[in-house]
Prior knowledge:
This protein has helices at about 90-100, 105-110, 125-135, 145, 155-175, 185, 195-200, 225-230, 245-250, 255-260, 275-285, 300-315; strands spanning about 205, 260-265, 270, 295. The protein is mostly helical. The strands form 2 sheets. The protein has a two-stranded antiparallel sheet. The longest helix has 19 residues, at about 300-315.
Amino acid sequence: MNRHLLSALGAAVIAAACSAPGGSGDLGGGDYGANGGTGNGTGTGNGTGNGTGTGNGTGTGNGNTGTGNPNDPGGGTAPPTSGPGSSGSAAHQSFVNTVYPAISICVTCHANGTQGAPKLLANDAATSYQYLDANGMIQTPSMLQTKGSHEGPALTDSQAQLIANWLQLEAQERTGQQAPVNILAQMGDCLDQTKFNAIAFQNLKTYPRKGENTDRCTGCDNAPCRVCHTGGDGGFYMAMGSNLDQNTFAQTKTQTYIVKYVGLNGTQVVPSNAIQTKSDAVSTAPAYTPHPAFKLTDTMKTALDAFVNDAITKYNNKQCGQVTDGGAAPDAN
Length: 333
């Protein structure tokens, strides 16, 4: 199956790009819990950051308020306790019991970063499930289904059928929930173009890895990422700086490409961190790996964080025109 099974989980991720560093509130690592801390101090709280309320009021510290990288091994949060994405759901169990064992060849590369494959899977089924959800791959069609042959083989007919059956179960479970099934499609209305433009993707370029001869490697020496992604190649749409510049934001808002920025934990929107995942994979890949290396500047990372977190905040506050009463939504997520 895919070695770049969703590189920029853009397709997850075979696309080129980068994201933010670790820690609470950014795309690079740490928890992405939705609940703030509850203070347990009296008066001014129990020490610094352990609550500023009075009595048992709500505090300002110790809460998992970050929106960091759920794809960081050991990071992220537990799956929902019930409903879509929870370990007890029939769809989740279908993935664990039937799909994961059947895609062991994909795990071989995508759990360990072999040959520059983005780490979109893990060495256990439960963690792999959350990685795929966070990368927006639990939807129909999924990049799991459309990736095709790459540095890894395409799905066999048997694998494809197991994945289709699993995704159908996911679609049934996620319809009519508090957050509707087409969350990723609705997220497009939450994106702010000014914040997107501030990332300045037109300045994102490749660089040669250690040991690469720039006369031999392809597109590895200061080439703009738009050279390969102007048409959405590899699940990442980036025409910034070209005569198709105006299409980039419009395409980013669609369900196909928005997964480079946001994904899900059940029905909770989280940063996908797909661009950073891809950057990490290609930067540590062996010389002459097909996808060239690239890296975001610190300024780009900060702007990318601001763009993603602003969209998630708007969605959570129901400011993007989404269904608010648990209404049914179309097709699969």
